[in-house]
Amino acid sequence: MSDKPLSSQLCRCWLFLPAGDPLKTLLAAAESPADALIAEFEDFTAPEKRPAARAQLSKVIEAWRAAGKRTAARINPLSDADGLRDLEAAMAAGVDVVALPKVSMPGHVTQLGEAVGAQERKLGRPIGSTELLPNIESAAGLVRTIDIVTASPRVEAALVASEDMANDLQCERGRDGSELRYVRERFLVECRAAGIQPIDCPYTWTDLEGVAADSAYARRLGYTSKSAVSLEHAMTIQAALTPGAEAIEQARLKVRAFEAARQRGEGRVEVAGSLVEMPIYAEAQRLLKRAALYGLLNDDDQEE
């Protein structure tokens, strides 16, 4: 694995890990296939475990960064007594990203940005070097997504929740996730409109078949990033959101055929029963570019 982490736009799996877990467990998580690791101080870490979790965070982040991971910490809301303490520990540890739960209005992002900026100045770090990751977990947050994610230039990505969102909506949960389809669709549309990376909600059952199906559905919607709350799910998510050999080959065929058609003065061309027009050509180019950034293309592909 490269010692340089992927950008937030390229991270496929964002894995939440309880910040209060034993140090040995958190250090071992560096071997996870997930692109991004999040030390979670809120729901997954009991209040009495948070002081010890903050004390060990620097060692954890150092190990994760050495393994080439994008590093993050999800702090408690700043309105909570623990929120600022979590933030100070996260900034001292040098995380790439600070995630904030239960964001329901742009002011939550603005407040966090100011607090992060104050820590950057205190620590002598470049102002603006720390990203913010708003977590949208309620109906109020969902309908304000575009305003929330554009509230700070520090926001490169945002994440939508599953269980907290379902609880807020008072819907009945099921393994197929049908009750959250509108949430996932709307969240993606608003993030794309804002030009930031949408991170899909986690699959919170334990079966691998279910997370594979849920990840395939997310990919079909247009997601290229997904969160996880189970270490065992990371490999499945990574595989689902990584361009496969067949998809790369199909993209190459579409690009070549369309460009040849354009040289003949034609506006579209048929490839394997599909009419390739400019939007499909652009989609194929985007897939090849993403595959190249993951190091999946050979020299011939790179020349496309």
Automatic annotation (TrEMBL):
InterPro entries assigned: Aldolase/citrate-lyase_domain (IPR005000), Citrate_lyase_beta/mcl1/mcl2 (IPR011206), Pyrv/PenolPyrv_kinase-like_dom (IPR015813), Pyrv_kinase-like_dom_sf (IPR040442)
Molecular function, one GO term: citryl-CoA lyase activity
Residues annotated for Mg(2+) binding in this entry: E137, D164
GO BP: oxaloacetate metabolic process
Residues noted as binding substrate in the record, renumbered to the chain: R74, E137
Keyword terms of this UniProt record: Lyase, Magnesium, Metal-binding
Family listed: Belongs to the HpcH/HpaI aldolase family.
Name of the protein in question: Citrate lyase subunit beta/citryl-CoA lyase
